Amino acid sequence: RVIDEKMKQSNISKAEAEADYNSFLENPPIYYALEKKEEYYMALGYKDVFEGMIGEAEKEGRGDAMREEIAKFKLQSKIKAYSVLVIVIVGFIYVQGIYNLDPENFMKGGLPDYSRR
Fold this sequence. Notes:
This protein is mostly helical and about 120 residues long. The protein has 5 helices and no strands. It has helices spanning about 1-10, 15-25, 30-45, 50-60, 65-100. Helix 1 (about 1-10) packs across helix 2, helix 3 (about 30-45) crosses helix 4 and helix 4 (about 50-60) packs antiparallel against helix 5 (about 65-100). The longest helix is centred in the last third of the chain and has 39 residues, at about 65-100. About 0% of the residues are buried. The mean pLDDT is about 85.
């Protein structure tokens, strides 16, 4: 039923509709939407989503505002990525410090002992 509706809405073949629906089921909705957005902008001739968003915003006369939004988004993404990296590195150094203090008793009792079986 869903595939038939997709075929009617988009005027595509049954195989294309099935492939599209399977892609929707395999990917979480946010990734599916991003993929479709990228396909849309690529079909318009843009090299990526950001360039497409800027190009379409320039047609509406708000290209500078869109550039600022994209720059802000990229900056926030970098901050989040570096924050995760710092937390992982600090956690590793902390665990290594605990191990170096007493390697004999490190996580003793915390992990199951399968050597007795």
